[in-house]
Amino acid sequence: MVTWFSEPLEFEFMRQAIAIGLSLGILGAVVGSYLILQQMGMMSGVISHAVLPGISLAFFLEINLAIGAFVAGVLSALVVIGIQKRSRIKVDAAMALTLTSFLALGVILISSLKTNQINLDEILFGDILGVTSGDVGRTIIITLVILLLTKLFYKELEFYTFDPLGAKACGLPVNLLYFGLICAITLTIVASMQTVGVLLVMSLLVGPAITAYLLVKELYQMMYLGSIIGAVSSVTGMYLSYYFDLPSGAAIVMVIFAFFLLAFLFSPSQGILTEPGLGNKIINRFK
After folding, report:
1. What is the pTM (predicted TM-score) of this model?
2. Cβ atoms within 10 A of the Cβ of 284, count?
3. Which residues fall within 8 angstroms of residue 218, CB to CB, at 6 or more apart?
4. In whole angstroms, what is the distance from residue 243 CA to residue 48 CA?
5. Tell me: the pLDDT tens digits for 129-142?
6. Which residues contact 12 (CB under 8 A, 6 or more apart)?
7. Could you tell me which residues come within 8 angstroms of residue 34 by beta carbon, excluding any fewer than 6 positions away?
């Protein structure tokens, strides 16, 4: 058993992959908790797909790809909220339009700017085994900064999350809080691109958070439990990837789904198989 656990750690690429997986598991759960409670889960999908034109332009201009991805991600979120606020269009339709438009723009830019050298497979599906010590350090810094800001502004963010109108009436800078949340989402996605890729990053942001949501009631409990689920899922996915020769990002996502499925079935208060009064309901159906 000890050998099974320690063998992958003999390789530097596995140690770095596990370190970045732990950071992103925690970060995704904390940021994702706000997303779920504000019913903005699909916003992560919009931003994760919208980074492509930013990456294309950054590659063409020979600047850091993360900068281009961040700018494009934030811009896409602002476009969504702008359409929603300035028209009768619902937020889901605004998200669908923005996602497809930014994705199409990215494809056009890759073709027209001759940036075909961009490794789309790595961006879309990730390559956690290819992370460097610099990637690990950058991800840990992003995680610590966002966790610190969450701690400092926890009460304001909690108030805004559960009662945005009340928060605005009390004089809280709700627009600034929303922008800060969007920046946190985008930073999480940018940090996750090389790990699970933009197509699977939604799982890191949504999966641990909704699993915890089925098990606990308080926001801080949701963050703590979600962080544990995200971290354990990342490490477990890496070990499964190592021993069974599976794609690392996909393995992490499937472990997250397995945790969700267990909570969905066996949650003490909301589980399909443990729902209070379930026995009486089954008996009544056969009467």
Report:
1. 0.88
2. 9
3. none
4. 29
5. 778 888 889 889 99
6. none
7. 40, 157, 161, 181
Task: Please check whether residue 22 is in contact with residue 231, taking contact to mean a CB–CB distance below 8 angstroms.
Answer: yes
Rounded to an integer, what distance in angstroms lies between the CA atom of residue 67 and that of residue 73?
A: 10
Query: Is residue 48 within 8 Å of 85, Cβ to Cβ?
Result: no
Structure tokens at 105: 């723009």
Q: Alpha-carbon distance 169 to 171, whole Å?
A: 5
Contacts of 175 (CB under 8 A, 6+ apart): none
Domain range list for the chain:
2-285
Kindly tell me the sign of the dihedral angle through the C-alpha atoms of 140, 39, 77, 160.
negative
Tell me which amino acid residue 160 is: Y
Q: Is the dihedral of CA 99, 234, 209, 165 positive or negative?
A: negative
Domain spanning 2-285, CATH architecture: Orthogonal Bundle (1.10)
**Crossing angle of the two packed helices 41-61 and 12-37, in degrees rounded to 10:** 130
Q: Token digits for 268? A: 């003490």
Token pair of 231 as six digits? 């971290």
Contacts of 84 (CB under 8 A, 6+ apart): 90, 91, 94
Residues 6+ away with beta carbon under 8 Å from 268: 215, 274
Closest-CA residue to 125 (of 197, 69, 47, 193): 197
- Could you tell me the two tokens for 127? 């390559």
Q: 67-115, pLDDT tens digit by residue?
A: 999 999 999 999 999 998 899 998 889 999 999 999 899 888 888 877 6
Name the residue among 251, 35, 58, 9 with its Cα closest to residue 161.
35
